[in-house]
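Per reviewer request, we include the raw input and output of the structure prediction for the construct analysed in the revised manuscript.
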Amino acid sequence: MAPYAAHPNHPASTVPYPPIEPYDSGLIEVDGGHRVYWETCGNPLGKPALFLHGGPGGGCSAGNRRLFDPQRYRIILFDQRGCGRSLPHAGLEANTTAHLIGDIELLRQRFGIERWLVLGGSWGATLALAYAEAHPARVGALVLRGVFTARQAELDWLYRGGASFLFPEAWDRFLAPIPECERSDLIAAYHARLTCGDPLVEAAAAQAWCAWEEELMTLEPQPAAPVSDIAPLRAMARIETHYFMHRAFFEEGQLIGNAHRLHGIPAVIVQGRYDAVTPPATAWDLHRAWPQTDLQMVPDAGHASTEPGNLRRLVMATDRFAGMEW
């Protein structure tokens, strides 16, 4: 892969790109009673790029648009089933990884795109890998950040005590709402509370579930902001526990085991060296299975895409691929 060269109108010292607004947006009907929100930004005639948000259960934000040069990219974002502006909010029926892959293909066809760059971080990286392995001919390039493949060891790190060795006080807060008799399976215990139908119980569980992950997100955690709207936290927690109870609907080791399907797709992996949500071992395992990847271990970053080291590498990667033919 050719070395990175900064675009003349966007020196590498200035990231991300300036804020932009969508030039089109809407809801698309998909199966299972869901309507998926989408938006397009940047240059309508530019190189197509798809952004996949994290979670599962998160949603797109205005900052996600700024990872791409709006003069050179046609930027497409969407809120996955049950997330953000998609409907029904926090819906779990007909919500699996296979459904999301189908939604991506439906959007690709709707926009008349032959091949596109796909960028995703954390769960977005998971979904990007799953989509690329299912439809490799449709992916011109991949940019992955904080690789997560939903193997049991990765889930155990987060929810069976691994990360507690680094964050013992946050782990105690995460355990507190769950009786000791249920702590052998925290994902199931939280999922039961998040789907019980009692708004107060669901709200408390959502806040505790999301607070644990937030504590692990960056090298320099910021004080938690007051929660003014519980709905996004409830969607995140409900959908995450739904997916994680099923190991994201993958066979054990499926994504790394099928990495051979990605041969020939240029890819950059941006991995924070001190990522406590998705530790570097998974990115390394993927790189060993798919050696052509450009694995960039960021020495001064954790998990969040907004950390300066991660952010810079992501923009550098999209700049690199903007000038590449596929």
